[in-house]
Every structure is written in structure tokens, then in C-alpha cells.
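seq:
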Amino acid sequence: MSLNPFKKSTYVGVDIGHKYIKLVQLERNGGIWKVTKTVKVPTPSDTMKDGVVTDIDVMGIAIRSALREHKITATSAVVGVSGASVIVRTLTVNKMTPVMLRKSIKYEAGRYVPSSIDDSYIEFEILGDVGEDQMEVLIVAAPREVVESKVKAVEKADLDVDIVDVEAFAMYRSLIESDESSILHQMTVALVDIGATATTVSVVSEGAFVMTRTIVLAGQVLTDALKTYFQLSDEQAETGKSQLDFTPLVTESVIENQPLRVIQPHVDDLSREIRRSLGYFAQQTDTTKNNPVTHVVLTGGGAKLKGLGTYLSNKLGVEVITSGVFENPRFLNSSDEELGAGMEWSVAAGLAMRAFAKAA
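struct:
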């Protein structure tokens, strides 16, 4: 807590990943979001495992150093959580008051949470009625260890943590929700965030989250495949991967590019897992609603591979849109960094946006 109750809080979005820590500060000018500060530093080795910060002191020092080096003077932070243990589900339950639902939420969530309910944070939002006797509820559950380890690490960096958000929510906020002109508001879309160690697939139907699933297959698997096959260093493999173009895989039957041939099986594995996620959604959906996934929005550092969206579109049979925050007309890059489309910054920017909702 700030010692001065009259001091205005300033916020930074903190996206703690297994490979990088990303920080974003925003200014809001009417309906325009100006990105004023961006910081990306390597996550210290052996400080993260399965979404949990395993060395809070070292992580805190890394975040504090990044803040000071880049002259970010925020007092508070919005932190994101993600991973296979973070559950996001829309459920249909018997109609009841919020007070009654609060009392029964552990039972409702218990069918979906793999870890102990007592060791999890659980929140819910009532989405609306379904017929006369039932209602739809969005449930979010996250292990205390995941939430508290990130909060403690950020607090070690001398920041107050006012808000903990789900990374998928932050991503949707920055890419789609804030762009009122986007046609995706009224559609059922799958957000696919390809990170370093995991890919998150979230299905959002007309603005409401239906499900989120984590796939333990992402950019690092592709890097490791190149590294092993060609006997490269991490840096050489990363550089080589960034120069690949997947477009020929769509049209050519024989591919002479050996690096492409090395990583294609892993991309195909990822495609199959994304398809499984969409299939699970279809099985769980009330068929009378007729709301199949029509678009996949591809983002994250792994989405920067040239032609990957086209290749996945061909594999999945749906339109794939590769998107970053700066392809949203509501965002402007006012920082000193060249950030391209901003595909790596969708989560951190969405977390920073969340602070403005709190202030309102």
C-alpha cells in the first residue's frame, strides 16, 4: 500500500513469461491508446516453471532492474496469469442469486479444476439467463501458487499489485474489445497466443469467453528442433527460425528448404492440438446456437513467423488473422522502440489497459 493515500497511482502492465518479461505503460487520449514505454528483458534462468515463479527474489530483482534502467516510474502493476492450471469455463447452472452462487462456486468449479479447490482462487461473472430456470456463468480458477508467486515477485520490485488478470482476457481486450469497428465482436473467434513454452487457445463468442486451453507446444520447440538438427547455438537457431517463410508449404508438394522440413512436423502437431481445442468447443456447445468458430486470431512472439497464419489456415479450414496491438487502429506506438505489428505485446498492453478500467 502507498503511504500517501492522496498520491495518484501510476500503472504498468507486467507480462512474466518463461522466456521474457515484458512491461508496457499506456496513456489514454479519448478512444486512443498510446504506448509510451515498452521493456523486454530475458526471464532469469530457472525462475519459472509451469506458470509459477520459483525464485521470487531473483525475478523481483530482474523486474526492478528493468524498471530503473528504462526509467519507468510506476507505483502499481497489473499482472497476468496463464497456463494449464488456470481454468476459464462458461457453465450453465441453476438460477440463483450472486450470494448463493458465491457459496456454491467451489462445488461448481470443482468438476473442472485439476488441483485442490481450497488451494485455488475462484472468481465468477453471471453472463445471463438461459431459459426460465438456468443461467450462464463464467468461472475463472487459478492455483494460489501461480497467483501469489507472481504477485510476490512484482512486489519485490517495489510495485503494488492492485489487479491480477487472466492473460487471455488481456489479449482479447487489446486486440479486439478496444476496437469498436472490428467485425470480430459479433463472431465466435479463437485467440491463439503462441508463446515460448506454451500456446493458449481461447474461444470467445460474441464477446463472451467460453473456454481457454493451454497447449504445451510453442516457439521454443521449433527453435530446439533447428538447434538439434543443425548443431546450432540458441541464438543461431532463433535467428534462423525468424527468417523462415511457411508460404511454400501451402502450395508446393516438394520442399527443398531443409529447415522448413525440420520444423514442419512440430507445426503440424500444434495445428492438430488447435483443431482438437476447436473440436472440444464444438462438442460442448449448444448446437441450437449455431456459433462455430469462423476466425482464428493468431498472436504472440511465435506468430511472427512469415506465412504461418496462411499455413495454419490451410490446415484448420478457417480464416486465420495474424494480429498485434498496432494493427488495432486504437493503438499508437509513442515509445522509442520499433515494435512492428506488436504481436509480442498484446498481453502486456491488455494488462496495462485494465488499470484504466479500475480508475474509471
